Amino acid sequence: MDAEALIKAALREAGYGPDTIGSALPRIMRILQAEDVRIEMGRALSRKEREHVRLQLELGFDVSEVVAGLKA
Hints:
By secondary structure, the chain is an all-alpha fold.
């Protein structure tokens, strides 16, 4: 089971409805992706880097693309 399906199931089990899950899930997934970027970088990100990561993820960039951009 992938992370998104697992989170959906957990939210459903916690009693959240489809509207709440639908609005919260994208934000939760971006938070997890941002953590993936931090792990890939192997260090804490600066405030400016965190803002850059957030924006890139909201625009639909993949974690590997964001990491490559930060390393360049």
